[in-house]
Structures are given as structure tokens and as C-alpha cells.
Design brief:
The complex is a heterodimer of chains A (115) and B (109).
Chain A: E1 5-7, E2 10-13, E3 19-24, E4 31-37, E5 44-50, E6 53-56, E7 65-68, E8 75-79, E9 88-95, E10 105-106, E11 110-114
Chain B: E1 3-5, E2 9-13, E3 18-25, E4 32-37, E5 44-49, E6 53-57, E7 60-65, E8 70-75, E9 84-91, E10 97-99, E11 103-108
Parallel strand pairs in B: 2-11
Antiparallel strand pairs in B: 1-3, 3-8, 4-5, 4-9, 6-7, 7-8, 9-10, 9-11
The chains are: A mainly beta (115), B mainly beta (109).
Chain lengths: 115, 109
């Protein structure tokens, strides 16, 4: 079964440093999501793409976070500068289209620790 | 915004049945999903409900009442491997998917 690929699997960085995460969705999936999951909580949507366009980034802290999906395939999420409160699991998910009953398929995530 | 509530923790014995409730308040409704998440792993899709009623899939069943803003996930014949967090997620009128905090189920021998 096709999977959503994410890297790195783990990342430790010092506060004020820059960090980037990469995601490659399932082939053919037009919709891509970045979620943040703090330990003990449910995933929280950061940004949603439809092809290369941002559909929803209302919860993305734009002063420090940025996301892009330049060719409408893979995507990068960046944090600069990282803060202690950014320590969390960053999950990427994809779906064929955004307005259907298709479930989201999640990658294994990147666990970020900011020291 | 969305408000999705589910119990924090549940414990049950191997072979037993556990029911995880989820109540929600959303701006519009376009479906409810249940996901399973083992510690340190990605959420995996379990079930989807958009119409009222019961959806059965092997040992797992999910029920929806749209008028009550209520769903439950039923896990039957519990196995040790079912120990995990179970996430209720609701799609609103804009098809935005929001998650509850998750219910940690512990299965004991």
C-alpha cells in the first residue's frame, strides 16, 4: 500500500535555530495537510494545500512558520526561529481530493524536540 | 470553531467490549472519522460515518447520530494490540477536519 513519506523521523534543535521538515504524499493525491500534535492531544491543522495552492493556513503561526508545495507534489514545512513550545510531532497527511469522504492518510511524522 | 469531546482514558480486559463516545459541535457537518494511533506512530483510519446509523467493520463498529452530535466507536473481542489512542475527527461545512484529544485505551490481560 502506498504511503506518505516524511523526513526526518526525529529532529533535535536548539531554540532560535531554523528547522525544516519534508513530506511526499501518496502519488496522485491533490490535497496535502500539515498537522501538529502535542503529546497527549489530538492533531491540530497548520496548513492545507490543494495542488500548489494554500487552502487554509489560518492556524499557521506565520511569524515563524512557513510552508510550500511548489510543484504541487512534495511539501516543506519550516520553522524559524524555533521555540521551546514548538516541541511536538509534525504530521503530514494526504487525500485524493479535499471535498470527499476519502480519509486522510498520515505519514509517520517528524518528532521535533527544541532545547 | 469545532468542539470535540471524548474521554481521556479507558481500561478494559482482553476479550471484552469497550465503547468510546464522542460528542461534537461543528459549523456544518461533512462526516465523522475514527482513527487509531499507537504511541509514537501515525494515526491510521478505522471508520467513516456521514449518515445516521451503525457501520460495522470486523471487530470495530462506529455509530453516528447527527441530530445529537454524537458518535461512538465499539471495539469488540479486545486484544492486547488494541491498546492505543483512538481519535474522533469531524469534517465541517468547509471540509476542514478537526480532531478530538483522543481516548487512550489500555487492554489488560
Amino acid at each position: 500500500e502506498a504511503e506518505v513519506a516524511q523526513s526526518p523521523r526525529y529532529k533535535i534543535t536548539e531554540k532560535s535555530q531554523a528547522v525544516a521538515f519534508w513530506c511526499d504524499p501518496i502519488s496522485g493525491h491533490a490535497t496535502l495537510y500539515w498537522y501538529r500534535q502535542i503529546l497527549g492531544q489530538g492533531p491540530e491543522l497548520l496548513v492545507q494545500f490543494q495542488d500548489e495552492s494554500v487552502v487554509d493556513d489560518s492556524q499557521l503561526p506565520k511569524d515563524r512558520f512557513s510552508a510550500e508545495r511548489l510543484k504541487g507534489v512534495d511539501s516543506t514545512l519550516k520553522i524559524q526561529p524555533a521555540e521551546l513550545g514548538d516541541s511536538a510531532m509534525y504530521l503530514c497527511a494526504s487525500a485524493p481530493v479535499w471535498d470527499s469522504n476519502s480519509p486522510l492518510h498520515f505519514g509517520n511524522g517528524t518528532r521535533l524536540t527544541v532545547t | 470553531g469545532q468542539n470535540i469531546d471524548q474521554p481521556t482514558e479507558m481500561t478494559a480486559t482482553e476479550g471484552a467490549i469497550v465503547q468510546i463516545n464522542c460528542t461534537y459541535q461543528t459549523s456544518g457537518f461533512n462526516g465523522l472519522f475514527w482513527y487509531q494511533q499507537h504511541a509514537g506512530e501515525a494515526p491510521t483510519f478505522l471508520s467513516y460515518n456521514v449518515l445516521d446509523g451503525l457501520e460495522e467493520k470486523g471487530r470495530f463498529s462506529s455509530f453516528l447520530s447527527r441530530s445529537k452530535g454524537y458518535s461512538y466507536l465499539l471495539l469488540k473481542e479486545l486484544q492486547m494490540k488494541d491498546s492505543a489512542s483512538y481519535l474522533c475527527a469531524v469534517r465541517d461545512r468547509d471540509y476542514k477536519l478537526s480532531f478530538g484529544a483522543g481516548t487512550t485505551v489500555t487492554v489488560r490481560a
